[in-house]
What does this fold into?
Amino acid sequence: MRVFCFGDSNTYGYDPRSYLGGRYPENLRWVNILGLLTGWDMINCGENGREIPRRDAEVRRFLIELEQADADLLIILLGGNDLLQGASPQETANRMSRFLDAIQKSSGFSGRILLIGPPPKKLGAWVPTQSLVNASKTLADLYRQVAENRNVGFLDARNWGIELCFDGVHFTESGHRAFAEHIFREFPEGSD
It folds into this structure.
């Protein structure tokens, strides 16, 4: 199975110990770990700072990339940066709704979609307030409803115990492994 992983810096594999946007080694990124666990052909389309695409040009560019990838499954892990930039959980869920609608209306992708509710943030260098932590905890419930309304797969990473770095946002190396292992265990196709 060919899998297109569309996300932010945690999908990219950003290592916050690097000041220049460095990445964890390939074998420590959740996308690659999931590929090893499943035998799937993984495409990592993570980008630092990415928010949910909402401008027409962003959505069109994404749809072209997705169509060219010829993927069977699209995994989406987004929303954390939207919250960090001041969007409310409801506004973030609305953005995701519109994004999924655009994907489903596109004739260029006929595969399945898996939306993942991101792990909650914790207080840290990038997360200065408890209100932001609380907002990140409520996002998954809103995403679950968005996924159900569009008949797409959904996984809730809130209770996966993903270890985060000092910044309160980025996965540690063990966090990447745990994230991949939970997808493998909880996604029905993971055991194929």
